[in-house]
From TrEMBL:
Superkingdom of the source species: Eukaryota
Keywords noted in UniProt: Hydrolase
Species this protein is from: Cryptolaemus montrouzieri
Pfam families found in the cross-reference section: NUDIX
Similarity remark: Belongs to the Nudix hydrolase family.
Name of the protein described by the UniProt record: Nudix hydrolase domain-containing protein
InterPro entries: DCP2_BoxA_sf, Nudix_hydrolase, NUDIX_hydrolase-like_dom_sf, NUDIX_hydrolase_CS, NUDIX_hydrolase_dom
GO MF annotations in UniProt: hydrolase activity
SUPFAM superfamilies: Dcp2 domain-like (SSF140586), Nudix (SSF55811)
Location of the Nudix hydrolase domain: 39-122
């Protein structure tokens, strides 16, 4: 499927699924609620910094923006498990033996919480 905005993607999916296609007129409200809900889920990941502080690892998001590897916590996960899983999913690195629960940066933008572990690598 070609690249498109969330609204177009959702409309295409709604129209393709018989059980929800009659709800297409409610799509804007569904997307507003989904965006509000999405902000309530904290994100975890990691900042990989070279020993000499000259390089960091960043990934390009589907939106085109660049950020540190991170993602939303799944049900039943603790923050460290989420950070390890998300980094592995996004860049294929197993950081389970590198992440330290006492070395991290936290941020809050509007209602969205994000925590990134700091990992120095050789």
């Amino acid at each position: 499927m070609p690249s498109c905005r969330m609204e177009k993607f959702a409309k295409t999916m709604f129209m393709a699924i018989p059980s929800v296609c009659n709800e297409i007129e409610n799509l804007p409200a569904f997307l507003r609620e989904w965006r509000k809900y999405k902000l309530t889920i904290p994100t975890y990941g990691a900042i990989f910094i070279s020993q000499d502080n000259s390089h960091v690892l960043i990934v390009q998001r589907y939106s085109g923006n660049w950020s540190f590897p991170r993602g939303k916590m799944e049900s039943g996960e603790n923050p460290e498990e989420c950070a390890v899983r998300e980094v592995f999913e996004e860049v294929g690195l197993d950081n389970s033996n590198l992440i330290k629960s006492d070395e991290y940066i936290e941020s809050k933008k509007e209602e969205k919480y994000s925590t990134l572990g700091i990992i120095n690598v050789a």
